[in-house]
């Protein structure tokens, strides 16, 4: 006889079947429409061809969104007090009569699903979560929002239970019959406790109220999302991008959304989130790739990087540009047509003033300057010729003759050369004299020495007419150089030659992307044997409309994005902010970060300090307070480090405990012993992570040796060596393939900087004392490293454990005062203080029972009961 649970599951399964049936129908219809559009003979007018191709693009995009919704199409439902139910999913669907049968999670009506609480039920009696695998419903969990109405409804619905679990979950038992079985918090804990895959997933089915509010905030200004590690800042930023693309699609598809993250590894880690939400119109970039044509793979010393990011560098670059607009004291003597011509200083200064007053960038103001001086030279030639006055045409012939003379050109170019940003910067770094003149009193001699670097010497800079040299092309720029190149580009303007080159490259890249895209579409439609990808790509004459700005924008420095998202925003230097605001002059941005994690030597004290120069007080700060990643036992240790760095800082409250305290292992100081110890602990951690991901986080100088030791001892766990993989390639410069290897390795060896923003099931942290003593902010780095683990943390060290880690029991060593103490249970009052909404009226016993049966979920921190507080 079917149980209540079975009945409830069957009912939901039937509805979900209907939804998938409809999804299939819509997909088929869309495919049909696309097929038809593509097969239409190409004989129409250019206008109709464009229209048709825009239709094709619209159908193809829709198809991609429908495909992305296949997994977990529907994940929740809301029961309304007024009667009726609304199902929530990854996309919206209507039935054949155009009645809504599934609501997109981003639609206004879905807000209640995320925001309703018992205190503020928003017209709902129940929120239901559906767990699905493929197209099968495997479990249900309910949050009663109006218990009385909910019970009445449940009774009316043929004894329908509030919770049910399919074969993948434990019996809900009595709790289910009473209507209080698994809840949304169970689903949340399941998601948080699942082994990590090396890639971030979307969290659309378990978004919490405080996160949802931020995601849906108005997008007409600068919004800062501030919060400790693991509070979901990155996840929120990405879901906000998806939300904005939904609510403001036309504008944002045209202009694009720019997402800036700290490293290629990090971008690889997050890159699946938006496509899984059906959104692709987003440009991802690291700071090192924000200047078209430059892939900054070099590395600066911390002090040099810090100086390059300093706001004073804007004046230094401006000074460098002005310094290249020369007016020598004795003027310039030029030999032309067997005569000496002379430009005195006053004439040159007048021409320079006029050119500067044009307010154009250096390279285009140069035209004014050259025109003025050619005029002066023409006068001299004319005055020497017999016959006095000349017709304008004759004068202009003389001017052309002058400009055709290489000697004249060289002399004028020397006074005001055509410059590329790369040339300007390379010359500046290579020449102490140029740098001293550009910097004036803005930089000290020691600071100037930090910028010094071998490169093209002073002399080639003076070569006339040179816009791009082999030397500048070969320079290994660093991420910190990128903002300076951009600053220079802004002041110089693009020399025509560089612009033409860029244009040609961009056009070629666009054509290749078009072909690739067309091939994919034809393959998907089974038309690849009937239509040729090149022909179809040719027809798509409006790529910018079709795929929006995303790809186009990447190669164009002057492109302005409709919205800017910056992750780890606390690390962005003043110079990089200047670049970013140039990319998004509308100043509509979502910036996520944590000032406590800032590793810069002089960290910002407030968001105002970072943002003030560009936006004044026109920004709002939203705070996330609950840590979804780090279990309470690990967070306790990390909190000591946070307090040491800033006694006033409040650590985020962990949402769960792991039931395992982090510990430390002291190794006799020899290097070999340390490597053996790290390998042993990595193996142990991999065992505990049981198929999840492990990170060995170590000081930068140790990565190569640890990787080699791991490879030698347990090759199956380590990142395989690539033929061209220099082990110590700096942060921020890994290629995508390398990033994959790093994220996919069962045990990845990383520096703290590389681990920023990432998370792992287990972390082996090596030599924390060295991390503390590093050239960046040691306490911030240690805080970051400690908060990467979702379950297991082990510290491996040789000397004394740093005092800030006093809470960690040393394995095999004397017990610390707190070693062995019971894990700290987060008090209910504390938890409530960290959450905006309470959900307190639920039967504690049943919730606790449910959780206890869920092996591997980790314990909820709130006194052994479920975490209903979060809704
Ligand atoms: N509502 C949620 N449901 C499920 N998982 C969540 C939720 N919120 C956050 N998470 C998970 O918590 C983890 C931490 O999130 P995220 O990386 O966005 O935090 P963060 O604040 O950016 O951390 P950090 O400052 O350390 O980079 C991720 O695995 C994320 O998927």
TrEMBL record:
ATP binds at residues 227-234. The keyword GTP-binding does not apply. GO terms for molecular function: 3'-5' DNA helicase activity; ATP binding; DNA binding; hydrolase activity. Keywords: ATP-binding, Helicase, Hydrolase, Nucleotide-binding. It comes from the Bacteria. PANTHER family: DNA 3'-5' HELICASE, UVRD / RECB / PCRA DNA HELICASE FAMILY MEMBER. This is Helicase. It comes from Parafrankia soli.
């Amino acid at each position: 006889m079917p149980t209540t649970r079975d009945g409830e599951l069957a009912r939901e399964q039937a509805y979900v079947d209907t939804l998938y049936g409809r999804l299939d129908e819509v997909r088929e219809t869309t495919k049909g429409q696309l097929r038809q559009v593509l097969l239409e003979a190409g004989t129409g007018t250019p206008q109709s061809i464009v229209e048709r191709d825009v239709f094709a693009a619209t159908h193809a995009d829709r198809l991609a969104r429908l495909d992305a919704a296949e997994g977990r199409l529907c994940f929740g439902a809301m029961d309304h007090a007024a009667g009726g139910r609304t199902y929530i999913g990854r996309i919206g669907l209507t039935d054949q009569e155009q009645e809504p049968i599934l609501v997109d999670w981003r639609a206004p009506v879905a807000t209640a699903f995320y925001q309703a609480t018992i205190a503020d039920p928003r017209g709902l009696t129940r929120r239901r979560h559906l767990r699905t695998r493929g197209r099968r419903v495997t479990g249900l969990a309910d949050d009663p929002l109006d218990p009385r109405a909910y019970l009445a409804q449940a009774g009316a619905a043929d004894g329908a239970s509030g919770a049910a679990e399919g074969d993948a979950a434990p019996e809900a038992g009595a709790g289910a019959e009473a209507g209080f079985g698994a809840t949304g918090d169970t689903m949340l804990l399941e998601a948080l406790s699942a082994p990590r895959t090396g890639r971030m997933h979307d969290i659309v089915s378990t978004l919490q109220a405080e996160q949802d509010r931020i995601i849906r905030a108005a997008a007409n200004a600068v919004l800062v999302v501030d919060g400790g590690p693991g509070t979901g800042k990155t996840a929120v930023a990405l879901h906000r991008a998806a939300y904005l693309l939904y609510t403001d699609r036309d504008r944002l598809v045209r202009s694009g959304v720019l997402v800036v993250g700290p490293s290629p590894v990090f971008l690889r880690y997050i890159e699946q989130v938006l496509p899984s939400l059906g959104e692709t119109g987003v440009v991802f970039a690291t700071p090192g790739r924000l200047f078209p044509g430059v892939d900054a793979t070099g590395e600066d010393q911390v002090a040099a990087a810090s100086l390059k990011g300093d706001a004073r560098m804007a004046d230094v670059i401006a000074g460098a540009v002005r310094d290249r607009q020369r007016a020598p004291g004795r003027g310039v003597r030029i030999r032309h047509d067997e005569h000496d011509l002379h430009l005195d200083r006053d004439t040159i200064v007048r021409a320079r003033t006029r050119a500067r007053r044009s307010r154009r960038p250096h390279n285009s103001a140069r035209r004014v300057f050259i025109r003025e001086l050619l005029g002066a030279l023409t006068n001299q030639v004319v005055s020497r010729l017999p016959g006095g006055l000349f017709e304008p045409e004759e004068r202009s012939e003389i001017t052309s003759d002058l400009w055709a003379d290489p000697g004249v050109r060289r002399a004028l170019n020397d006074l005001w050369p055509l410059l590329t940003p790369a040339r300007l910067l390379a010359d500046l770094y290579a020449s102490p004299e140029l740098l001293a003149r550009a910097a004036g009193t803005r930089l000290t001699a020691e600071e100037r020495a930090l910028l010094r670097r071998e490169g093209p010497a002073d002399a080639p800079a003076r070569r006339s007419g040179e816009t791009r040299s082999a030397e500048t092309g070969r320079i290994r720029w660093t991420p910190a150089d990128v903002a300076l190149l951009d600053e220079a580009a802004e002041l110089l303007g693009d020399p025509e030659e560089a612009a033409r080159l860029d244009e040609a490259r961009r056009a070629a890249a666009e054509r290749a992307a078009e072909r690739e895209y067309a091939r994919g579409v034809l393959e998907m439609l089974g038309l690849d044997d009937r239509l040729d990808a090149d022909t179809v790509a040719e027809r798509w004459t409006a790529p910018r409309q079709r795929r929006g700005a995303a790809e186009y924008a990447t190669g164009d420095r002057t492109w302005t994005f409709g919205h800017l998202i910056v992750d780890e925003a606390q690390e962005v230097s003043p110079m990089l902010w200047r670049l970013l605001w140039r990319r998004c002059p509308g100043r509509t941005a979502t910036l996520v970060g944590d000032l406590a994690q800032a590793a810069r030597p002089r960290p910002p004290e407030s968001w105002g300090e970072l943002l003030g120069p560009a936006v004044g007080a026109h920004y709002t700060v939203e705070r996330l307070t609950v840590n979804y990643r780090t279990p309470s036992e690990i967070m306790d240790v990390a909190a000591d480090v946070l307090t040491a760095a800033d006694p006033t800082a409040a650590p985020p409250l962990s949402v769960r405990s792991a039931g395992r305290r982090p510990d430390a292992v002291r190794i006799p100081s020899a290097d070999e012993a340390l490597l053996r110890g790290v390998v042993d602990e990595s193996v142990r951690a991999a065992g505990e992570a049981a198929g999840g991901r492990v990170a060995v986080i170590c000081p930068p100088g140790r990565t190569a040796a640890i990787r080699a030791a791991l490879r030698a001892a347990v090759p199956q766990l380590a990142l395989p060596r690539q033929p061209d993989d220099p082990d110590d390639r700096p942060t921020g410069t890994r290629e995508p393939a390398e990033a994959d290897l790093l994220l996919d390795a069962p045990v990845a060896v990383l520096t703290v900087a590389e681990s920023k923003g990432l998370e792992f099931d287990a972390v082996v942290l090596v030599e924390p004392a060295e991390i503390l003593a590093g050239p960046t902010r040691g306490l911030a780095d240690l805080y970051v490293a400690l908060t990467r683990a979702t379950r297991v943390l082990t510290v491996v060290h040789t000397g004394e454990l740093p005092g800030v880690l006093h809470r960690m029991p040393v394995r095999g060593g004397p017990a610390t005062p707190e070693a062995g103490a019971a894990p700290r249970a987060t008090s209910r009052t504390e938890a409530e203080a960290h959450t905006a909404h309470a959900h307190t009226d639920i039967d504690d016993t049943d919730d606790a029972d449910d959780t206890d049966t869920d092996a591997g979920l980790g314990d909820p921190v709130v006194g052994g009961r479920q975490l209903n507080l979060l809704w």
